[in-house]
Amino acid sequence: MEIIDIAEPFAGCRDRFFARSVGTSFAVRASTDITEIDLYDQIGTWGVTARDFKAKLKDAGDITLRINSPGGDVFAGVAIYNDLVAHKGKVRVEVTGVAASIASIIAMAGSEIAIADNAFFMIHNSRTFAAGTSEELREIAAVLTKIDDAMSRTYASRTGTGIRSIKKMMDDETWMNGKEALEAGFATEITKSTEAKAKFDLSVFASMPEALKWPSADDSEPETERDLERAVMQDAGWSRSKWRAAKRIIKPNDEPLQDAGKVDLTALAAAVQAVSATFKH
Q1: I want to staple 35 with a disulfide (CB 3.0 to 4.6 A). Which of 60, 163, 174, 263 is the partner?
Q2: Is 200 strand, coil or helix?
Q3: What are phi and psi of 120, to 5 degrees?
C-alpha cells in the first residue's frame, strides 16, 4: 500500500457534512497484544480529526480498527489513511456499519478488511462547496480531479480492479453490501451481521440504501455525551467552554460522563439557564 500524496489547498474550519447523528463515539482500548479503535463518527472537525487519530497510534502495536463512518473531510481522511499505512504494527479493519466516502479510503489501509454481512461500503467522487471567480473555481475543480485520481488508484491497487471500472463506480456513487464488497475486492472476509452503534443522516448522498435512511424524528434524540456536545456546539452555537460549564452542572454526583449509554437530560434546562446567565455580557 502506498501513501496518498495530496496537499491541502486551504486550511480552516469546514462546515459539517452530516446534519444529524446519534450514538457516535471514538474509543480506544489497549492491551498488551492489540489496540482496538472504534471509529464511529464522521471524519474531520465535527468528528474525529487526523490529529486526534494519530495520537491514538503513538503507543499502539497491532491494531483492530472498527469503522462505522459516513466519511467527511477528505484531507483528514487521507491523513488518517497515510498514518495507518505507515504504522509499524498490523492493521485489521472491521466495517461494522458503513464505510462511506473517505471512510472507505481509511478502510483500504487494513491488511485484513472484514465487513459485517449487513454493513455497507460506498465510493464516490469528491465534492465540495465553493464560491469565487471562474479562475478560482477552475482551480478548485482541478484539486477535486487530483483527489479523485488519487483515490481511484488506491481503490484499484487494493482491490485489483481496473482504474476505468473504479472511476465508473465512483461516478455512479456505488454502494456495496457485505457480499458485494467482498466480491469486488473491497473486503477480504465477511463477518456476521451486527447492529450499528451509531447512525447518521446520509441524505446528502444520492443513492443511499433504504436500510440506511434516517429514523423518524421520535428516534433522533442524542444518545451519548458526544452526540449532545455536537448538538449544543453546532445547532445552539455554544463554545466548548460553555458546553463544559453546562456539563459540570448536569453531571450527577461529580461522576465523569462517558461516551456510552443514554444521556440524562433532566437537568439540561437548569444548566442552560445557569450557563447562559454566566456567559452574558
Answers
A1: 60
A2: strand
A3: -135, 145
Give the whole-angstrom CA distance, residue 168 versus residue 52. 33
The residue segments making up the domain with residue 256 are: 225-278
- Verdict on whether the full-model pTM lies above 0.85: no
CA-closest candidate to residue 236, choices 197, 200, 199, 271:
271
Which residues are within 8 A (CB) of 57 and not within 5 positions of it... i.e. 6 or more apart?
Answer: 63, 83, 84, 87
Q: Any long-range contacts for 235-241 (C-beta under 8 Å, 24+ apart)?
A: none
16 in any annotated domain:
no
Residues 53 and 179 in one domain: yes
Q: Tell me the C-alpha distance between 13 and 6, whole Å.
A: 19
Q: Is residue 5 part of a domain?
A: no
Mean pLDDT of 195-208: 87
Cell numbers given for 188: 477480504
Catalytic residue positions, numbered: 101, 124
Q: Is residue 12 part of a domain?
A: no
Instruction: Determine, yes or no, domain membership for 2.
Output: no
Co-location of 167 and 192 in the same domain: yes
